[in-house]
């Protein structure tokens, strides 16, 4: 399977940079957020596009989030937010599936395997953050109203949950939100266990 050089490294840097933005710019983040989302999309396109058919699929999946990312005056806010979040969820699901297959098919531990495992873990956090934000669009009372005011808050809650830190400054209120949080926490722990077992298995078989 042909893989473009530095694809995982580029994606990892972009994802980490995205996570750092809210802390660096706060409420002044403005257009930087959609621009950073676009950089994540481009990094994913570069990573996944290994042949023409793959490139065609990811380009088709990338068009809806790009269109809704910058509004273009086509949608009202709620519809735009819904379409944007759903489009990103579908796109990240495809990218996560691609990385997972790569990790499962790896025959030796390389830098790509390590970076790929880190990227997939971060993508899981982003995926659940988008899911919480989508829930917030339809059910604003799903989380503490005073604690959640922007996507960065949902993203923060997602990574606190997937790492099981549980600070408690943002809490799910509705039953469905609590169920999502439980599933994410379990997913994070299972992922770490499976990845460690996989890496140990590859090392044992190659040694």
Helices, strands, pairings?
Blueprint: H1 7-25, H2 32-48, H3 52-69, H4 77-105, H5 111-138, H6 151-162, H7 175-206
Helix pairs in contact: 1-2, 1-5, 2-3, 3-4, 4-5, 5-6, 5-7
Structure description:
It is a single chain. The protein has 207 residues and is an all-alpha fold. The protein has one domain (7-206): Helix Hairpins, CATH 1.10.287.70. The chain has helices at residues 7-25, 32-48, 52-69, 77-105, 111-138, 151-162, 175-206. Helix 5 runs antiparallel to helix 7. The longest helix has 32 residues, at 175-206. The model has no long low-confidence stretch (mean pLDDT 85).
- Helix percent reads over 70%
Mean pLDDT: 85
Report low-confidence residues grouped into runs of 5 or more: none
What is the number of helical segments per DSSP (H or I, 4+ residues)? Answer: 7
| Tally of discrete structural domains | 1
């Amino acid at each position: 399977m042909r893989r473009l050089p530095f694809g995982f490294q580029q994606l990892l840097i972009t994802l980490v940079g995205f996570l750092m933005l809210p802390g660096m710019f706060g409420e002044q983040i403005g257009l930087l957020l959609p621009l950073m989302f676009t950089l994540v999309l481009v990094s994913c396109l570069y990573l996944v596009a290994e042949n023409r058919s793959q490139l065609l699929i990811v380009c088709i999946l990338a068009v809806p989030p790009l269109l809704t990312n910058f509004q273009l005056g086509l949608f009202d806010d709620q519809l735009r937010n819904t379409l944007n979040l759903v489009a990103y969820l579908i796109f990240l699901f495809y990218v996560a599936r691609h990385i997972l297959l790569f990790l499962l098919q790896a025959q030796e531990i390389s830098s790509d395997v390590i970076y790929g495992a880190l990227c997939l873990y971060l993508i899981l956090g982003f995926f659940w953050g988008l899911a919480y934000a989508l829930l917030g669009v339809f059910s604003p009372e799903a989380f503490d109203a005073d604690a959640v005011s922007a996507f960065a808050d949902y993203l923060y809650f997602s990574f606190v949950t997937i790492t099981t830190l549980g600070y408690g400054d943002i809490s799910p209120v509705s039953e469905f939100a609590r169920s999502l949080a439980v599933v994410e926490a379990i997913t994070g722990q299972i992922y770490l266990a499976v990845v460690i077992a996989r890496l140990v298995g590859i090392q044992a078989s190659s040694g």
